[in-house]
C-alpha cells in the first residue's frame, strides 16, 4: 500500500457501529496497525454481553452511542446483524462521511435508503474474526471507489477481490469467508472434504471457479483443535440467523456439500429480501 494511503488511514477518525466479534476484531486490528485509540469509537446495542466483550478486549474506553459515533467519525464501519441495520436511521451524517457495510446479505441501496442525501457506501464481505486477527483475511468489495476504504482494508491485511455486481456476494459468502468454518465443522464430524469435492460442489451451484479462494480456505482453517477450542471457534465465527449458521445446520443434517452451499446462498438471499 502507498505510504500516503497508510498515513491517511491512520489519521482518519473511524467509528464502528456494532461491537460483536467482527466489530471488535476490526477495532483491535486497526489499533494494532497503528490507528491512535483516540481516533476510534465503537457503539453497541447496550447489551451486557456487548459491554463485556469490549471490556475483555480492552476497548471499554472507546465505547460511545450511535450519535457520537456519527458526529465524530469520517469513516463508519457497519458490523451489526442484518436485522439491526436500521441502527443509524434518523441520524444525520456529516457531508463526506463514508459508510462501509460488512452486513451480510444487505444491498447497498437498502442502506442508502436510510439517509438523505444518500452517502457514499462500500459493501464488504470479509472472512471470520480470527483471520482478521491473524492478518490473513480475504474479502470482497463492491460499491463506491474509495482509496481510503481500500487502504484501510489492506492495512488490516485483507486480500481484496473486487466484484462486478452485488449478485456475486451470495456466492462469495458461502464459498469464501464461510468455507474454513464449514471445513472445521466437517472435521469435528469426521467428514472428510477434498479440494476436488469443494470445486464440484461449487460448480453444481454455478459458483465462479475461485481456485484461489479454495486454496485460501484450506490454508487458514484451524486444524487439530480439541473439542472445546473447536466449539469456541465455531461460536465466534457464527452469527445467529446468519449465513454460516445455515451452512453448518445443513452440514449437521448430512446434506451434500452442494446442498449446503445452496442453503447458505438461500439464507443470504433471504437476508437481502
UniProtKB/TrEMBL annotation:
The keyword Signal does not apply. It comes from Pseudomonas canadensis. The lineage of its organism: Bacteria, Pseudomonadati, Pseudomonadota, Gammaproteobacteria, Pseudomonadales. Residues 13-105 form the Pyrroline-5-carboxylate reductase catalytic N-terminal domain. This is NAD(P)-binding domain-containing protein. Keywords: Oxidoreductase. It comes from the Bacteria. Belongs to the pyrroline-5-carboxylate reductase family.
Amino acid at each position: 500500500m502507498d505510504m500516503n494511503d497508510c498515513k491517511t488511514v491512520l489519521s482518519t477518525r473511524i467509528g464502528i457501529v456494532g461491537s460483536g466479534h467482527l466489530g471488535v476484531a476490526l477495532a483491535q486490528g486497526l489499533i494494532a496497525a497503528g490507528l491512535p485509540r483516540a481516533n476510534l469509537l465503537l457503539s453497541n446495542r447496550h447489551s451486557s454481553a456487548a459491554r463485556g466483550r469490549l471490556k475483555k478486549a480492552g476497548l471499554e474506553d472507546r465505547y460511545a452511542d450511535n450519535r457520537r459515533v456519527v458526529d465524530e467519525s469520517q469513516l463508519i464501519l457497519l458490523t451489526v446483524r442484518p436485522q439491526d441495520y436500521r441502527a443509524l436511521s434518523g441520524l444525520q451524517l456529516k457531508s463526506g462521511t463514508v459508510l462501509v457495510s460488512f452486513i451480510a446479505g444487505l444491498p447497498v441501496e437498502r442502506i442508502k435508503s436510510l439517509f438523505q442525501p444518500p452517502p457514499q457506501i462500500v459493501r464488504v464481505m470479509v472472512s471470520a474474526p480470527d483471520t482478521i486477527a491473524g492478518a490473513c483475511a480475504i474479502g470482497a468489495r463492491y460499491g463506491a471507489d474509495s482509496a481510503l476504504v481500500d487502504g484501510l482494508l489492506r492495512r488490516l491485511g485483507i486480500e481484496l477481490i473486487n466484484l462486478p455486481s452485488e449478485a456475486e456476494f451470495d456466492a462469495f459468502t458461502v464459498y469464501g469467508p464461510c468455507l474454513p468454518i464449514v471445513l472445521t465443522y466437517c472435521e469435528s464430524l469426521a467428514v472428510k472434504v477434498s479440494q476436488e469435492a469443494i470445486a464440484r460442489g461449487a460448480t453444481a451451484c454455478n459458483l465462479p471457479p475461485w481456485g484461489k479462494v479454495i486454496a485460501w480456505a484450506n490454508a487458514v482453517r484451524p486444524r487439530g483443535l480439541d473439542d472445546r477450542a473447536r466449539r469456541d471457534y465455531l461460536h465466534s465465527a457464527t452469527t445467529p440467523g446468519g449465513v454460516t449458521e445455515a451452512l453448518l445446520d445443513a452440514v449437521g443434517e448430512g446434506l451434500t456439500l452442494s446442498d449446503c452451499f445452496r442453503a447458505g446462498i438461500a439464507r443470504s438471499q433471504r437476508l437481502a429480501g
